[in-house]
């Protein structure tokens, strides 16, 4: 058994690694245990909201990411047939954030940068190819039992453990904390293509939510590709959803032209769930291990990074002698955001995108147009959609 005075972190996704960097910045040693042989490099989240960039800046992780991403100050709500309904301007946030834009960059660029920071620090260990299997705790410490790829079992004992091991979190399951919620009756098909939608559609913003009573979609620009996210019938098999002929038909329906080159395709089921507790003694849950929501609005990974920063700030204070009661505030603050802001907003975003009632659609579109035309309402809207408001509101949670 390896017994050390450090923080254990299960999972080297964006949340586990940001928590690790944030603890290292406070002089707290960390060991990160990652099941995979290497960090994930597939296409997942690709939007960093302004306050996330502010946090990453504080941790020295923003500059490199900005160099490898695209700054997008505008995002659009569109109607698939009628075109742009409203264009929101994050530039209005210039007095609220040092980063008044969404940065479009793939999440693996953040995890790569965070790993480099860990490699430079003698008080950080990142162990890959090791699966956390069980977790127990007593009054003084947490014991993690993990299995190396070679089959060898190893135990780690430390005063605290962060469970940032994703949606199927073993840490969460080991604590017995419930994860109530629902699975959305839709498969999300995420495609990426080198096709330049920005050159083909006049006035298109780099981030577009496109409503339609029959097939809504999301168009997102990344540094080298455009991503297209379609909802798909959950009764279809993954093979049917990913069928290249059907994909080509859907791409042609969206914008007819030459055959599309598809660089990546993924089909994934989306859940809306929030763990009953984020704190279980000396064990803390963060990121997808604690909450899941649909990707509309790009709040899942961003909310997870906000968890990581909030959690490690408080854990740092506990490390330096503050009462463990402080960790209860982490749970109260971040669960509230997950339920009242992220989940509520993501469900609203989905509802408005696939609204079928023509009167309701018209009323919603009129409301959006009125919002952007009124500077105060426009600012309030981008404060919410950029997640700045959710962080400000936390100050009132004791
Ligand atoms: C296919 C896919 C597509 C996505 N697309 C989008 C998108 O378009 N937009 C969006 O906003 N979000 C998207 N997401 C969600 C987004 O990627 C997550 O919100 C984000 O990665 C959460 O970060 P995390 O660090 O909490 O968890 P993860 O990124 O899942 O990281 C968890 C890490 O823990 C490791 N791990 C798991 N179990 C163990 C164990 N027992 N022991 C040790 N290590 C373990 C995993 O290997 C992984 O590296 C997508 C997710 C997936 C899976």
Description:
Helix 9 packs antiparallel against helix 10 and helix 11 crosses helix 12. The strands form 4 sheets. The chain has an 8-stranded mixed sheet, with helices on one face. Strands 9-3-2-13-20-19 form a 6-stranded mixed sheet. It has a 4-stranded mixed sheet with strand order 1-12-11-10. Helix content is 37%, strand content 27%. The chain is of the alpha/beta class and 398 residues long. The chain has 2 domains: 278 residues, 3-Layer(bba) Sandwich (FAD/NAD(P)-binding domain), CATH 3.50.50.60; 91 residues, D-Amino Acid Oxidase, subunit A, domain 2 (D-Amino Acid Oxidase, Chain A, domain 2, 2-Layer Sandwich). The longest helix is centred in the C-terminal third of the chain and has 28 residues. The chain has 13 helices and 21 strands. The structure holds flavin-adenine dinucleotide (FAD). The site of flavin-adenine dinucleotide has 31 residues, from helix 1, strand 10, strand 18 and helix 9.
Number of strands: 21
Characterize the overall form: globular
pLDDT under 50 segments (min length 5)? none
CATH class of the largest domain: Alpha Beta
Domain module tally: 2
The total count of helices amounts to 13
Largest sheet: 8 strands, mixed
State the secondary-structure class: alpha/beta
Give structural attributes.
398 residues, alpha/beta, FAD/NAD(P)-binding domain, D-Amino Acid Oxidase, Chain A, domain 2, 2 domains, 6-stranded mixed sheet, 13 helices, globular, binds flavin-adenine dinucleotide
């Amino acid at each position: 058994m390896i017994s050390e005075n450090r923080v254990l972190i299960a999972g080297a996704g964006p949340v586990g690694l940001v928590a690790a960097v944030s603890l290292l910045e406070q002089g707290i040693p960390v060991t990160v245990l990652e099941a995979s042989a290497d960090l994930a490099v597939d296409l997942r989240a690709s939007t960093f909201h302004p306050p996330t960039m502010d946090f990453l800046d504080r941790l020295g992780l923003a500059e490199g990411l900005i160099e490898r991403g695209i700054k997008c100050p505008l995002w659009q709500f569109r109607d698939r047939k009628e075109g742009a309904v409203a264009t929101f301007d994050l530039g209005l946030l210039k007095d609220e954030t040092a980063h008044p834009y969404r940065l479009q960059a793939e999440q693996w660029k953040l995890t790569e940068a965070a790993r480099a920071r860990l490699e430079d620090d003698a008080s950080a260990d990142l162990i890959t190819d090791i699966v956390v299997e069980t977790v127990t705790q007593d009054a003084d410490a947490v014991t993690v039992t993990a299995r190396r790829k070679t089959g060898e079992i190893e135990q780690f004992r430390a005063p605290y453990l962060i469970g940032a091991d994703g949606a199927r979190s073993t840490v969460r399951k080991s604590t017995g904390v419930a994860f109530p919620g629902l699975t959305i009756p839709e498969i999300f098909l995420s495609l990426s293509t080198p096709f330049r939608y920005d050159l083909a559609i006049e006035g298109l913003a780099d981030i577009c939510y496109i409503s339609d009573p029959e097939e809504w979609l999301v168009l997102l620009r990344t540094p080298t590709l455009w991503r297209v996210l379609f909802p798909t019938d959950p009764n279809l098999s993954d093979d049917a959803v990913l069928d290249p002929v059907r994909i080509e038909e859907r791409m042609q329906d969206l914008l007819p032209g030459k055959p599309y080159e598809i660089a990546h395709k993924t089909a994934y089921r989306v859940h809306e769930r929030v763990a009953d507790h984020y704190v279980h003694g000396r064990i803390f849950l963060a990121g997808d291990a604690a909450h899941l929501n649909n990707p509309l609005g790009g709040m899942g990974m961003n909310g997870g990074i906000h968890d990581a920063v909030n959690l490690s700030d408080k854990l740092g204070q506990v490390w330096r002698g503050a009462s463990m009661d402080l960790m209860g505030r982490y749970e109260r603050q971040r669960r509230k955001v997950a339920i009242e802001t992220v989940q509520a907003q993501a469900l609203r975003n989905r509802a408005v995108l696939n609204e079928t009632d023509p009167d309701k659609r018209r009323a919603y579109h009129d409301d959006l147009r009125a919002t952007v035309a009124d500077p105060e309402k426009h600012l309030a809207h981008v404060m919410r959609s950029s997640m700045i408001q959710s962080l400000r509101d936390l100050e009132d949670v004791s």
